[in-house]
Amino acid sequence: MAERSRKQSRPAPARTAQGGSFFDAAAGGNFLTRSYLDASRRPLEVLFFLLPFIAYYEYELVRALRSPDGLVTNGAHLAILRLFDLFGLDAVALSLPGFLLAGIFLVQHVLSRGPWIVDLSVVARMFVESTVLAVPLLVFAALLERLVPAAGVDQFSALPLGARIAVSIGAGLYEELVFRMVLIGVLTWALLELTNLKRGAATATAVVLAAIAFAVYHPLAGPDGSVLPTRVLFFVGGGLYFGLLYVQRGFGIAAATHAIFDIVTALLIPQPDSM
Q1: Hey, which residues does 221 pair with through a beta bridge?
Q2: For residue 129, what are the CA distances in angstroms to 25, 216, 240, 254?
Q3: Is 261 helix (H, G, I), strand (E, B) or coil?
Q4: 43 and 37 in contact (C-beta within 8 Å)?
Q5: In angstroms, how far apart are the furthest CA atoms of the chain?
Q6: For a designed S-S bond to 214, which of 17, 20, 102, 239 qualifies (C-beta 3.0 to 4.6 A apart)?
C-alpha cells in the first residue's frame, strides 16, 4: 500500500489537448514546435498574417498602380480580374481578389469551427519563418546570376519603390493562389479521380506540373528572344520550392516567402532619379 501511495502521489506529466506530453520524443520532438507548425496552418492565423500584405497591396493598387493606361500588376491578379469581368463585376472588380483571398480563409475557419482567437506569437513567428525560407531561394537565384526583378511586370524598374514592393507582394499572394492553391488542388483531385495514383504520388505530380506551368507563365527569353536555360531552371526550381512549402507549411508561409523574395529583388534595383 505504501508503494502504491507513492506512485499515485507523483505529478502526472503535462498533457496536450490531444493527450500527449509537452515533450514526447516518440512523437517527434517538442510540443511547442509541433504546436506552432499546426497553428501556423490554421485559417484564422493565416488570414491575420496575410492581412497587412493584402492591405498594403490594395492601398498601392489604388494609389500608384492604377492609371488611365491600365493596371500595373502581375498576370495572375489580372487573370482573376478578367474572371470577375465575365460575371459583369468589372466596375467593382479591382479589390475583389483581395476580398476573395480573405473570404477563402474566413470560410475555412468557419467550417473548422475553431475559436475566434488569434495567437499573435504564431503570427510573428510566421513572418520570421517566411523571411528565413526566402534565403535559400535568394542564394539559388544568386548562383544562377539572376538577381533581377522576379515579379515579371513590364517597366518594373521604372516604378517608385513603394509600388515595386506592392507588385512584389501581389505576385506572392496571387501567383500562389493560382499556381499553388488552385492549380495543385485541381490537379491533385484530377489525378486521384482519373488515375490509380495514391494521394502522395498525386500531390507530388501536381506540384511538379504546377511548377512547370509557373515557369511557362514567366518570361523565359533573353534580349535576343532565345530561351535562357538559367531562367527555366530558376522558375521551375522556384515553383517546386513554393509547391513544397505550400504542401508542407500551408498557403500563408508559401505566399509570404514568395512575396519577401520578390521584395528583396525589388530593393536591389536603384530607384528612378525622380524619386
Answers
A1: 227
A2: 23, 28, 18, 10
A3: helix
A4: no
A5: 89
A6: 239
| CB contact at 8 A, 44 and 118 | yes
Give Cα separations from 150 to 10, 204, 209, 213 (angstroms). 59, 25, 20, 16
CA distances from residue 263 to 82, 97, 120, 165, 259 in whole angstroms, order as listed: 26, 20, 23, 5, 6
What phi-psi label fits residue 73: left (phi over 0), alpha (psi between -120 and 50 degrees) or beta?
beta
C-alpha cell at 138: 535568394
Q: What are the residue ranges spanned by the domains of the chain?
A: 40-267
115-147: pLDDT as tens digits? 999 999 999 999 999 999 999 999 998 888 655
Lookup result for grid cell 494609389: 63
Taking the model in full, what pTM does it have? 0.82
Q: Which tens digits make up the pLDDT trace of 2-42?
A: 444 444 444 444 443 333 332 233 334 455 566 999 999 99
Comparing CA positions, the residue from 217, 223, 120, 118 lying closest to residue 174 is 217
DSSP letter at 213 equals: H
Grid coordinates of 168: 512584389
Q: Which three cell numbers stand for residue 240?
A: 517546386
Residue with cell 498602380: 65
